[in-house]
Amino acid sequence: MGLRKKLKKKISDILIKNNIFFTSKKVTDKDVLKLLNFIHPKKINVNHIRIGGKNDGGYIVPNDLNGINFCFSPGVGQISDFENELSSRKIKSFLADYSVDYNFKNNSMINFEKKFLGPITYKNYISLKDWITAKIDYENNNDLILQMDIEGDEYDVLRSIDIETLQKFRIILIEFHNLHYVFDEFYYQKIFKVFEILSEYFYCSHIHPNNDVDFIVKSKKIIIPPVMEFSFIRKDRVKIIDNNLEFPVELDQPNNPNKRDVLLPNCWFK
């Protein structure tokens, strides 16, 4: 094998190993920056608090919880500190994940459904609207929390939600996955549409990269951590007091305490 072929193979192995490859046309930096602009965090007239403790399982949340009675939390990991702390605040959490078995009989404020959240209700999947309707009074509950960590399915789920259901959430906390695919035209369109919809009805108030992922993707001044946690609040609840924020903030904590934290790149907020 010639030197050029060996070099190409080495590069390909590295790209494939790190999932950095394109299945369709590469998106320009200009278009990626346009997408990021949808989601730039805003400084709002509400402070933030950390719920769920330090490290993984803790989220930075706009401190506008009065009047919220329910949280819907698809994607169940090994830690339920977030939902337990909501319980102490008299907020009941509904959890859903078909891949695990949990028993929360010791906490009546947590309800577990052995289902995956999906775009439609089918077999082991349940749509968000059907899930809400099955658990609470859909028509008369318009200030909910959505805390979503569903390993990449969030794009299809969010694109499928009708606007009436989406607007029932006062606060949305999402861990977005596979953000490094934003340079791939196919994935760019999926991510763009989700960010566009969210930005119409919600302000993004905080972003934190998950440091448990071992790589980032760079293109000139654009740096993309593959997995990041986003905090949103519905626009009717707050006002913007500044379009500029600085990161990290005091409440930020590394998801993995045994690894160096990943700082939010400037392109995500400037």
Describe this structure in words.
The chain contains 7 helices and 15 strands. By secondary structure, it is α/β, with parallel strands linked by helices. The chain has a 7-stranded mixed beta sheet with strand order 6-5-4-9-10-14-11. The chain has a two-stranded antiparallel sheet with strand order 1-15. It has a two-stranded antiparallel sheet with strand order 2-3. Helix 2 packs parallel to helix 7 (about 185-200) and helix 5 crosses helix 7.
Number of domains: 1
> What global shape is seen?
globular
Question: The CATH topology is what?
Answer: Rossmann fold
Biggest sheet layout? 7 strands, mixed
Q: Which structural class do you get from the secondary structure elements?
A: alpha/beta
Q: Average pLDDT value?
A: 90
Pattern of helices and strands = HHEEEEHEEEEHEHHEHEEEEE
**What fraction strand?**
15-25%
For the terminal residues, how far apart are their CA atoms? 46 Å
Percent helix range: 25-40%
CATH architectural group? 3-Layer(aba) Sandwich
Low-confidence stretches: none
Look at the structure and give the CATH class. Answer: Alpha Beta
Q: How are the elements arranged and paired?
A:
Layout: H1 3-17, H2 29-38, E1 43-44, E2 48-51, E3 59-62, E4 70-74, H3 81-88, E5 92-96, E6 110-113, E7 116-117, E8 125-126, H4 128-135, E9 144-148, H5 154-160, H6 163-166, E10 169-176, H7 185-201, E11 202-209, E12 217-219, E13 222-224, E14 228-234, E15 240-242
Jot down its keywords.
single chain, 270 residues, alpha/beta, Rossmann fold, 7-stranded mixed beta sheet, 7 helices, 15 strands
